[in-house]
Automatic annotation (TrEMBL):
Protein name per Swiss-Prot or TrEMBL: Transmembrane p24 trafficking protein 1a
Protein keywords: Endoplasmic reticulum, Membrane, Signal, Transmembrane, Transmembrane helix
Domain GOLD: 43-125
SMART domains to which the protein is assigned, alphabetical: EMP24_GP25L (SM01190)
A Gene Ontology term for the protein's cellular component: endoplasmic reticulum-Golgi intermediate compartment membrane
Keyword Membrane belongs to the record: yes
Amino acid sequence: MTGSNYTHSLYLMGCLILTVGLALDMGPNQNMEFTFMLPTGGTECFYQTTTTGDTMEIEYQVIAGSGLDVGFALISPSGQRVVSEFRTSDGIHMVDRTEFGDYRLCFDNSFSKMSEKMVFFKVVINSQDNTSGGQEEWIDFTVTESVADYRIEEIRRTMDSVYRHLEKTRQVQAVLRAFEARDRYLLEDNLWRVSFWSCLNLMVMLGVAVTQTYTLRRLFDNTKRVCT
């Protein structure tokens, strides 16, 4: 596999993961999944808008590229550096109470001058306003429909529990997809190395065998000439 074809395959893989992530994230929540190519010696930053008091979870992983490591920084709207990591392959970070504004997520590959990296990251925001608003709508609906016999609180807790479990399941599936892409990259890279060194060793063995055969034949030819 040539370098251009391999890079093209990585790009198609990234597009596939991005398409699946965007398809899953279409909805009222503020979740985001993204896979991108981080160029050699470059830095890429992304922005996530939050409101005051939200909970934000950030997860990233390097799934392709030499060394499988990048630098990561999370900067708050006020300019404070919340998270700063150097040359790590993955990480999970939680911001309990967010500020109002745009958080900046920066991925750094300036230390690598030879290899680009494929990075997957996911942002999950749990808004307190949206949750409370949904609960009030349920309560208003039940009151207006005069169904006081139903156990509203129990139904609401059950629905919240189901929703949290579904969100956790979807997050785990996204992480497993990233792990699968990373393992596939490592397997393909190791297969190329094994094939190359196996062919090189085979050529060396054949060369040594031919050289030994030629040397032995020359030795016996010289012996016959001396005897005659």
